[in-house]
Design a protein that fits this description.
heterohexamer, A mainly alpha (121), B mainly alpha (501), C mainly alpha (124), D mainly alpha (162), E mainly alpha (89), F mainly alpha (931), B: 501 residues, mainly alpha, 20 helices, globular, E: 89 residues, 84% helix, binds sodium ion
Chain lengths: 121, 501, 124, 162, 89, 931
């Protein structure tokens, strides 16, 4: 299982980083969210993986490492706060700068920010 | 039970919180008073802590839990000094803001206090995850402060600043995972003792973690090539905020020092000083980029922002030289540069206000209403920051030059530091002559600067002559602090030892 | 625990899991959105219900005291599932989802979307 | 009494749910449950639209049981239809004229419809006169409508006395 | 015995989840994907309950409860977004 | 002790003029002169002691760690220069009293002047090299102020900047040199340094030291190739020029060479560099001076040339040459000061300095003319004047030296040529100004200046004559002691006579005289010859080159910091990648020895779900809503994973955060474009994919290596003490609220701050409001679907009950304040969605800011509470109580803390979401009104 877990963490990291390297705010936000999933799983697993070992005293035979869990909880909350801020900032940036490019300027030859989806049915 | 060590964190937290609640939340006036009162209290407690730390390192076990299990605050000379420095800087910034900047948007005073809490926490904590938490506190506060006053530039700069720092925070957590996953502890003192005993495989993982931490701290410290966020962010921030930001890069450098020269210091076996070879070239490059930026700067704010880069590079040099003299110079220089750059940000704002359309750009403009006064302040600031005698800059610079030991070190360190100083001299003489003397038309429009603003700037600038006049005691303190800092938290080690059955 | 109870649990579990799977199959298989809408809203409710009851019985028997908290979840699902379906149907009509060709009374979509009586729009 | 318990039914439900969740009827839990059963309705009172209250609790109970049965049946039906060949299915829209006009009953009706035999309520006309439903396998439109009306609408009408 | 049954049920639910995923990827429309997500919520409730049974531990119940509550909210939010754009107005 | 007063008095003197300015010019001038005069007296009082060779030193500690101490001394050299600096300084003060116009702020001028005087004095009397450097730099700074005194004209500003830059460069070099010397000698104390000449000369770093020190000296004393700044420094008021060119600034460089002469000279390197530089400077200066039409320009270049002469002398290496150098320092100071003052008078009286217009001033101001002519004659080296004597010595020395080996004969020849030119420009100064026909349309008709304006010149010219006639009597001892200090040993015996008999030097003088006369007579040809060469304006060139540097710096910065976040992020990630990757190369075995968990079908399908949906998020990232759906699947699976791997609390938290995030992103998406345009070039996409993939691979590898290795962590402690110490069975929760409650406090603070910041962001935010959905359809009319709202209001109480339940059990079972808070917020948000802002506005009166505040306050005060019992911040307390009927129950301070968490979470989340919702609604309402 460890291998699969590590693979997923790596994949999430890769996907997250790729999206954070995009040029528009929304994909970047999504990327950062993916990245934070990867980070949380990674930090969580630094206490090693254990099944059926919830750290509720008296409920399990052996216990997982509770410390990383606590750390990840903190990390999740902080991550949430940061995401929230950056999301709203994205809106603000678009209203201030007129576009949603991370650099505040539409690169030459960029398609219209809101070109319509071709909806299949 | 002495609580001094925790006060620099609690006082701002409490006052910031109270300012969100009635009755204080109602009027800006009440918030201003609260803010000033808490600053006075903080100055007081910081001074006491500073005094106590010279007698013995102040350890504070939060929740009364034995380290390494609980979070421990460590107020040794250095952290006490930095807390004091932060408070002084904040006092200057807040005083300045009272002239009206604090009313450009909501929550200014609360956010400023939160920022203080974060910075002080980062300086005081002895626990690496707690360090992360305080990093986030000071970051989120800075995000919020950066947009204070509004405007496109701020928004734009903020986007870059935040995204880069979010990636940085992610890396921080990766690194923490690697370190906890190998060392099994978060207490920095205990980490430092465990590194040497790691199995080969684990020690490589720990090394990876340590190096990743360098990226994180380097980003905060604006170490090249992670400095890109800084110039725009600092140049666009509103004056008091920018002044306050002068301390933020120092947090990164302080962390690099703690982690990469103490925790991963000489006791770390194979991992001793792993990061140093990386920092060497980057420190010098940071200096160079800063110098180039200073020469390229089209406006005073940008110039000062790049001065921050130069100071970051200089301090990194102080880190990598790995000797006491360097740390002494570094500490002295840190205090000097933080206060003077802070003052210059404030001054740049006044200048911009009095030059009308031209603001702080180096173009011909109408003469300033208070040219002589501002000119004098600018002159003092410029001489100080350029490291020209008789003001404080030269002492730190000379101490660092002396710290370079081998011929190679001298070659690199001296050339980069001295050339960057030359660049600063050129740029500042140019800036000064352009801003104050290259004028046309007559003084119109703007009203005089408010006395409180001048007081704030003077307060920060006074440090410069003081640091020279009392250079003897100052450097002696720095020496004591340096020697103490290079040891591996002896007091904490004993405390941990007591805890072990 | 007694054999009877164990078998009860087993049956309930298999049943529930089966219905859940059927629901998902329907989601995957059915031809248009409106028909797909049926599968989860119903199959799921029963599937989940069965599984929950199984767990309720299991824990009531295996631990001191009864375990009926599962009922709360069932309650929630039965309250919310129809509303979810309603909202999605609303959205579907808003998006003018083409219903399966052989669907009867397609003309009703128009008034339904605008929340008007059927007479409001004449028969085609 | 009305001031402490503005919505007695709600309070009862809350207490019940509380005890269910805690799996215990210890005195302490009952006390806590009571506290919440009183406080929460009071706290949320301002956010409640007035709804018709139960007139016939027993009918309501019977209605629920019947619904359960229908759900089970409908699940089997749907399961067969899903697993069987899809080609046979002939879906369709129907518009059910409503006699009940109040929000809560209509909602309950729509929910019942959605939960039971191959039907999903899609929309209610703005004038509360029509309920639009999608039928998975529409064989006889009139029958279906009639069946729904008598099997679900009339009992609901009774229950809420409207 | 029970363990095996639980595993079998888990597999059923797992298959269900994979089918949902297929619908999620295939679409064709956004709504189909929303529907797929909603079904996934349901299936994962089941999965968590089964997990609890498997471990014989009641600690996972709240997880199921939360999904039941929050899944509804997020689906409702998505639908509201599709028909009105603005969630809170 | 009194020695310090030599420095302190002038230092105090800087403020005097600023104070006395308002009492009138004369008062101001004399009060200003008082303190320097006193200092001069003090210096003179030390004279006998110095002549007796006593060590006249006073030291006080300053910054020991830096090796910097306050240390003042007077040896011969210092004495000589101190006298020049103060003496001539006083004359300048007097002169400036009349020179300055009423427009000029006299107080400021004097203040700068005295500051400069102090700095210069500091250099010469310093006994500590670092301290000397400090004053050295102070002269640069204060001269900047003086040169730019008339800052309204461009030349002044540019000249000042140029001087600052050049001398600044030199100063930094000098600092390096000084520190290098200090490192070698182990002290900056002058005596110590002067006693370690051999040590220094033999040290490997000697060449570096010499070059650095000479760089300092040459830049300051305008030696080739740094000579160009000096002529432009004359944009300063003439008194300043007179001072800078005679006794100070430029002489500082000479002083430096003289100071280090005993320790640094005496090597090939020194001789070659110094003598050649001196010679070149001498010639260039002398030649250029002749062609300057500006009176001060001529004098400026003559200064350059004479400084070259002195440098050349110091480079010859014979003790006698050193004596000559010192002698010429004195003489040059005297006549150059008087000449500049004369030029100033002429400028002052005629309103121009252009010699093509200045003619025949003899009949307008005969007295001044006489003085100027005598001084000029001295400059030319006419017998009976002091200039003659030192020039003779100079010639003598050029003859017996061998600095250039076989080419040494060139030096006397070139020296003669140079002197010839100096004769020529002196002649021009005399003839072209005072005779040579009638003046050409002068702005004013000249006449003699006020008497006291001339007094300084009287004194100096008198000195020229007296020294010229009775040299030994007047300055014999001074010269001897000064030269002694330079040579650093016994002096050769030399005679200061007017008449040395007919000898080669005399012949050289004669040649120079006649040659000079001839050059001047045939100047027309020379001028036409010279006019072929365009006159290079060093000022412009320098300014251009600085501008060039700045421009290229700017272009570089614009290229490097091009404002592209994508580049910045890429570099950040790349950097991290390198630092992470390199160590791993040494990692031989990835897998550790820890037993691993077997895989089953469900786990696999879960992993598949995660992987596919993650990839889906990337693939569909342009269709934002779909990406969002994929993202929420990822979140769902992650929380399931947490549940599977024994972290129920994490699962719950992840779930609730998940939903809030989705709602948030949906709210945002409405005001952002629905789709991302295709704009990344294939190369960039490939690049990003590569780096992302590699990074992901590395993280995965590390993660695998990590979790397959055994770990010995501190966590046993938490398991052991959670119940006994923290009073809870949910260890994670106990860690959060107790062991590491401080983290949690910080965490909720972050949340609170974020909410405040977001409030700031939202305030006064304009909006892009899509009028139709993504497919161009108008939105439905039905804002708040009836059934949804009916059910929602039924759900609210239930949700609140659930959150209460989750909150209360948190300490012992999965749950806690944070999750409860999120559940509550979601329930409220649900109400907003179902009923709308307007409906809730007057029904739900919660000030979320207050909620946050009180939450933080409660949490903090809970922590502070433990102080009352003498425990540190956040020390927890709990106890079990037993009540009739109720039975036993626990009361723990952790609950209060958790309540703080709960409130903060609710407040923050609502402030973020509801506030955004409200704002957007009101915004849209207003917009629609406008339409
Ligand atoms: Na003439
Ligand atoms: Na809204």
């Amino acid at each position: 299982m460890e291998a699969i877990f590590a693979f997923c963490v790596g994949l999430l990291t890769a996907c997250g980083l790729f999206l954070t390297l995009r040029g528009r705010t929304f994909p970047v936000v999504v990327g950062i969210t993916l990245l934070s999933y990867a980070v949380n799983l990674f930090l969580f697993s630094s206490g090693r993986l254990l099944i059926n070992g919830a750290t509720i005293l008296g409920q399990s035979e052996q216990y997982a490492d509770p410390l990383p869990q606590a750390l990840v909880l903190t990390a999740i909350v902080i991550g949430f706060a940061m995401t929230a801020f950056v999301v709203i900032l994205a809106i603000r940036a678009r209203s201030d700068l007129g576009n949603d490019h991370v650099d505040g300027r539409n690169p030459p030859g960029a398609g219209l920010p809101s070109d319509r989806l071709k909806e299949k049915n | 039970m002495q609580h001094w060590a925790v006060l620099p964190i609690l006082i701002p937290l409490l006052s910031a919180t109270l300012m969100l609640l009635p009755p204080l939340a109602r009027t800006i006036r009440r918030q201003r008073i609260t803010s000033m009162i808490s600053l006075v209290l903080m100055l007081g407690s910081a001074l006491v802590l500073f005094h106590l730390s010279t007698e013995a390192t102040q350890l504070y076990q939060l929740g009364d839990w034995q380290p390494p299990f609980g979070i421990l605050l460590v107020a040794d000379r250095v952290s006490a000094l930095l807390v004091l420095l932060t408070t002084v800087l904040a006092t200057g910034a807040v005083l300045y803001s009272l002239a009206g900047d604090d009313n450009q948007g909501k929550y200014f005073h609360s956010l400023m206090m939160f920022q203080l809490m974060g910075v002080n926490g980062a300086f005081l904590t002895g626990d690496i995850f707690n360090l992360f938490v305080f990093f986030e506190v000071l970051l989120i506060a800075s995000y919020a402060l950066l947009i204070h006053g509004g405007g496109k530039q701020k928004t734009q700069a903020n986007v870059h600043y935040i995204v880069l720092n979010l990636i940085g925070s992610a890396f921080f957590l990766f690194a923490l995972g690697m370190l906890y996953g190998t060392l099994g502890t978060l207490n920095m003192a205990q980490m430092s003792t465990r590194i040497a005993d790691l199995s080969p495989g684990a020690s490589i993982l720990a090394e990876a973690g340590a190096l990743l931490l360098l990226v994180v701290f380097g980003l905060k410290a604006a170490m090249m090539p992670l400095h890109f966020w800084l110039p725009k962010a600092y140049a666009s921030a509103s004056a008091p905020v920018a002044a306050m930001f002068a301390i933020m890069t120092k947090v990164g450098i302080y962390s690099i020092f703690r982690v990469h020269t103490v925790v991963f210091g000489e006791h770390a076996g194979d991992l001793a000083y792993i990061a140093i070879p990386w920092i060497w070239p980057l420190a010098l490059l940071t200096l160079v980029i800063g110098a180039v930026g200073v020469l390229a700067a089209p406006s005073l704010r940008t110039l000062v922002a790049n001065l921050i880069l130069i100071s970051a590079g200089t301090l990194l040099v102080a880190v990598v030289l790995l000797n006491t003299q360097a740390v002494i110079g570094g500490l002295y220089y840190l205090v000097h540069t933080t206060l003077v750059t802070g003052a210059l940000f404030l001054l740049a704002d006044l200048i911009a206000q009095q030059r009308g359309q031209a603001t702080d750009r180096f173009v011909v403009s109408r003469p300033m209403k208070q040219a002589p006064l501002l000119g004098l302040l600018f002159f003092i600031g410029a001489v100080t920051v350029a490291g020209l005698p008789p003001l404080s800059g030269f002492v730190g610079k000379a101490l660092l030059l002396q710290a370079a030991e081998t011929a190679t070190q001298m070659g690199w360190v001296w050339s980069s530091i001295l050339l960057s100083s030359l660049a600063v001299i050129i740029a500042l003489s140019r800036a000064g002559t352009n801003l104050f003397w290259h004028v046309s038309g007559n003084k119109t429009g703007t009203e005089n600067a408010r006395p409180i603003q001048i007081i704030a700037i003077v307060l920060l600038l006074l440090a410069s002559p003081a640091l020279v006049i009392f250079g003897g005691p100052a450097t002696e303190f720095a020496e004591a602090a340096a020697l103490q800092m290079q040891q591996m938290y002896p007091e904490v080690q004993t405390l941990i030892a007591e805890g072990q059955p | 625990m007694s054999l009877f109870v164990e078998w009860l649990v087993i049956i309930l579990l298999i049943l529930g899991a089966f219905f859940l799977m059927v629901g998902s199959i329907g989601l995957a298989k059915l031809p248009d959105f409106y028909t797909r809408l049926h599968a989860p809203t119903k199959a799921s409710t029963l599937g989940i219900g069965a599984v929950l009851i199984a767990s309720s019985i299991y824990f009531s028997v295996n631990q001191e005291g009864i375990s009926v908290k599962e009922l709360v979840i069932t309650l929630f699902l039965f309250i919310t599932a129809p509303i979810t379906a309603h909202m999605m149907g609303k959205a579907a009509m808003h998006k003018e989802k083409q219903a399966l060709d052989r669907t009867q009374n397609q003309h009703l979509q128009e008034p339904a979307r605008n929340r008007l009586p059927p007479e409001a729009t004449e028969q085609p | 009494m009305k001031r402490i318990l503005p919505f007695p039914y709600l309070s009862m439900i809350l207490l019940a749910v509380w005890l269910l969740m805690n799996n215990s009827i210890s005195a302490g839990n009952i006390l806590l449950g009571l506290i919440f059963a009183v406080l929460i309705p009071l706290g949320t009172a301002s956010m409640r639209k007035t709804q018709p209250t139960l007139k016939k609790p027993l009918t309501a109970a019977r209605y629920l049981l019947m619904l359960m049965g229908d759900i089970i049946v409908s699940n089997v039906e749907v399961a067969i239809q899903v697993l069987g060949p899809v080609r046979k299915i002939t879906p369709g829209f129907i518009a059910i004229p409503l006699d009940i006009t109040l929000d809560l009953p209509i909602t309950l009706l729509a929910s019942s419809i959605s939960l039971t035999p191959g039907t999903v309520s899609l929309e209610v006309s703005e004038d509360r006169q029509w309920l639009y439903v999608h039928v998975l396998n529409l064989t006889n439109e009139a029958d279906t409508i009639a069946r729904i009306k008598q099997r679900y609408e009339s009992p609901l009408k009774e229950i809420f006395g409207c | 015995m029970l363990e095996i049954v639980v595993l079998i049920s888990c597999t059923f639910v797992g298959i269900g989840l994979l089918l949902n995923l297929w619908r999620l990827l295939k679409g064709p429309s956004v709504l189909d994907r929303v529907l797929a997500l909603d079904t996934m919520y349901i299936n994962s409730i089941a999965l968590i309950v089964l997990l609890g049974l498997y471990f014989g531990s009641p600690l996972y119940f709240e997880g199921a409860l939360l999904i039941a509550m929050l899944g509804f909210v997020s689906t409702a939010a998505l639908c509201k977004y599709l028909v009105r754009g603005d969630l809170i107005e | 002790m009194s020695l310090f007063w030599i420095l302190l008095l002038p230092l105090l003197g800087t403020v005097v003029p600023l104070l006395t300015e308002r009492f009138g010019r004369t008062v101001c001038a004399f009060s200003t002169a008082a303190l320097p005069a006193l200092a001069l007296v003090l210096v003179l009082l030390q004279m006998p002691a110095v002549f007796d060779g006593e060590a006249v030193v006073a030291t006080a500690p300053w910054i020991p760690l830096l090796g910097l101490e306050l240390s003042v001394h007077l040896d011969g050299l210092a004495l000589l220069f101190a006298m020049l600096v103060l003496g001539i300084g006083l004359l300048i003060i007097l002169y400036a009293r009349y020179y300055l116009s009423d427009k000029d702020s006299m107080g400021l001028f004097y203040a700068y002047l005295i500051l400069f005087m102090t700095a210069m004095l500091g250099i010469v009397v310093s006994h500590n090299l670092l301290q000397m450097w400090v004053f050295w730099e102070m002269t640069s700074v204060s001269s900047f102020l003086l040169i730019s005194f008339w800052n309204h004209n461009t030349d002044a500003r540019k000249g000042a900047r140029m001087a600052m830059t050049v001398t600044g460069l030199g100063g930094l070099a000098l600092l390096a040199g000084v520190i290098l010397i200090g490192n070698i000698v182990g002290s900056y104390d002058l005596t110590a340094v002067l006693n370690s000449g051999d040590l220094l000369r033999e040290h490997a770093a000697y060449p570096v030291i010499v070059i650095l020190v000479l760089l300092g000296a040459f830049t300051k004393s305008a030696q080739f190739p740094f000579h160009f700044w000096l002529p432009y420094a004359m944009a300063a008021p003439t008194p300043v020029s007179a001072y800078l060119h005679s006794a100070t600034m430029v002489k500082a460089g000479i002083f430096l060479m003289a100071r280090f002469y005993p320790v640094l000279s005496g090597t090939e390197l020194w001789f070659v560099i110094v003598s050649l530089t001196g010679l070149t400077t001498l010639l260039i200066g002398a030649y250029t001076a002749l062609f300057k039409h500006d009176l001060k320009g001529l004098l400026a270049y003559s200064t350059v040339s004479h400084l070259g002469l002195i440098t050349l002398l110091l480079g010859m290496g014979s003790d006698m040459a050193a004596v000559a150098a010192v002698f010429h320092i004195i003489n040059h100071a005297i006549f150059k000061a008087s000449l500049f003052m004369a030029a100033g008078i002429i400028d002052h009286e005629t309103g121009t300095r252009d010699m093509r217009r200045l003619n025949g001033l003899w009949k307008y101001m005969p007295y001044t003319a006489t003085l100027a002519m005598v001084a000029a004659a001295s400059m030319a080296g006419v017998p009976l004047l002091n200039g003659f004597l030192s020039k003779e010595m100079f010639f003598a020395e050029t003859l017996d030296q061998s600095s250039l080996g076989s080419l040494s004969w060139m030096i006397p020849v070139l020296a003669t040529v140079g002197t010839a030119f100096s004769v020529a420009y002196s002649l021009r100064f005399i003839h072209d100004v005072f005779f040579n026909g009638e003046p050409v349309d002068l702005p004013k008709t000249p006449h003699e200046p006020p008497r006291y304006m001339r007094l300084p010149i009287d004194i100096l010219v008198a000195l020229c004559l007296l020294v010229g006639i009775w040299p030994a009597l007047l300055i014999g001892d001074l010269l001897a002691t000064a030269a002694g200090a330079v040579v650093g040993g016994d002096l050769p015996d030399y005679g200061l006579y007017i008449w040395h008999g007919f000898n080669l030097p005399l012949l050289m003088s004669a040649l120079a005289m006649t040659g000079g006369a001839y050059v001047y007579i045939s100047r027309e040809k020379l001028f036409t010859f010279q006019s072929q060469f365009p006159e290079a304006n060093a000022n412009l060139i320098f300014d251009k080159s600085v501008k060039w540097v700045m421009k290229h710096c700017a272009t570089f910065i614009d290229w490097f910091e091009n404002g592209s976040l994508q580049r910045y992020s890429f570099l950040l990630i790349l950097f991290a990648l390198v630092l992470l990757g390199l160590p791993l190369i040494d990692l031989n075995t990835t897998a550790g020895l820890r037993p691993q968990i077997p895989v089953d079908a469900v786990m696999l399908s879960g992993a598949a779900l995660l992987a596919v949906s993650a990839l889906g998020t990337v693939i569909w990232h342009r269709k934002r809503l779909i990406a969002l759906l994929m993202l929420s699947v990822v979140g769902l699976i992650v929380s399931l994973a947490f549940a599977l791997f024994s972290a129920p609390d994490l699962a719950l938290t992840q779930l609730s955060v998940e939903v809030v995030t989705i709602i948030l992103l949906l709210l945002a998406l409405f005001f952002l474009p629905q789709n991302t345009p295709k704009e990344s070039s294939p190369r960039r996409v490939a690049r990003d994919l590569t780096i992302a993939a590699i990074f992901g691979g590395i993280i995965g590898t590390i993660n695998y290596a990590l979790i397959t290795r055994p770990l010995d962590s501190i966590s046993e402690f938490f398991l052991a003490n959670a119940k006994t110490g923290g009073g809870g069975t949910n260890v994670v929760n106990v860690i959060l609220v107790d062991f590491r409650g401080f983290d949690t406090l910080g965490e909720i603070t972050v949340l609170g701050i974020a909410a405040l910041g977001i409030y700031k962001l939202i305030a006064r935010m304009g909006l892009f409001k899509p009028t139709s959905d993504d497919y161009g359809r108008p939105w439905t009319e039905d804002k708040h679907p009836m059934m949804l709202s009916v059910i929602s209001q039924g759900l609210l109480p239930l949700a609140l009950l659930v959150s209460a339940y989750i909150f209360l059990r948190g300490h012992n079972l999965p749950g806690g304040g944070f999750i409860a808070g999120l559940v509550t917020s979601i329930a409220i948000i649900q109400q907003y969605m179902a009923h709308g802002v307007d409906w809730l506005k007057d029904r739900l009166k919660l000030d979320y800011q207050k909620v946050i505040g009180s939450g933080l306050l409660i949490a903090t005060l809970t922590g502070v509470g433990s102080w009352a019992f003498g425990y540190p911040f956040l020390t927890s307390w709990y106890d079990y109580w037993t009540w009739p009927v109720i039975g036993e129950f626990e009361v723990a301070s952790a609950i209060a803390f958790d309540l703080g968490v709960y409130l903060t979470v609710v407040g923050a989340t609502m402030l973020i979401l509801a506030n955004l919702g409200q704002h957007t609604t009101t915004e849209r309402a207003r917009e629609t009104e406008h339409q």
